[in-house]
Amino acid sequence: MHNSFTANKEKKKSTGNASRDSYRTVPRVFVSNFIVEPGKKKLDDVISEVDKGITVRRFSGNVHPESGEFSGVVKQASFIENGEIEHALKETMISGNTFETLMNIIDIGSEIRSTFGGIYTPPILVDNVTVISK
Fold first, then answer.
1. Domain residues of the chain, as ranges?
2. Cα 101 to Cα 15: distance, rounded to the nearest angstrom
């Protein structure tokens, strides 16, 4: 995704993904009109494939659009082990690189839900994200 600034910087075509908080701020890359096509598996079937991992219902953090680096707090998270949700997590953070994470998609579920800002997405199973939790 690019706005005209990041597209020119990367010598790519703009995808028109820009927003700004007011006329006083500079436009930034922002997710809009973003659609993830659903897969065929129910959420329980996707979870059953996970040896050890977490669910992420909400993410509150930062994503640097140029580098793709992200980090932040995961809210409404659960620990998964041997394909079963074991317990809720507290004080959990994740970090990684958005571009690499998109290349590490293992599966996409079928049940679409609303996330933030009017974005609707199915569950997405990814690999190689750093998790820090108690």
1. 1-34, 37-132
2. 20
Q: What is the residue whose two structure tokens read 């994503």?
A: 63
What contacts 22, CB < 8 A, 6 or more positions away? none
Predicted TM-score (pTM) of the model is 0.76
Tell me: the pLDDT tens digits for 58-111?
889 998 877 899 999 998 999 999 999 999 999 999 999 999 999 999 999 999
Question: What's the CA gap between 115 and 124, in Å, rounded?
Answer: 13
Report pLDDT for 5.
Answer: 86
Contact 33, 64 (CB under 8 A): no
Q: Which residues contact 103 (CB under 8 A, 6 or more apart)?
A: none
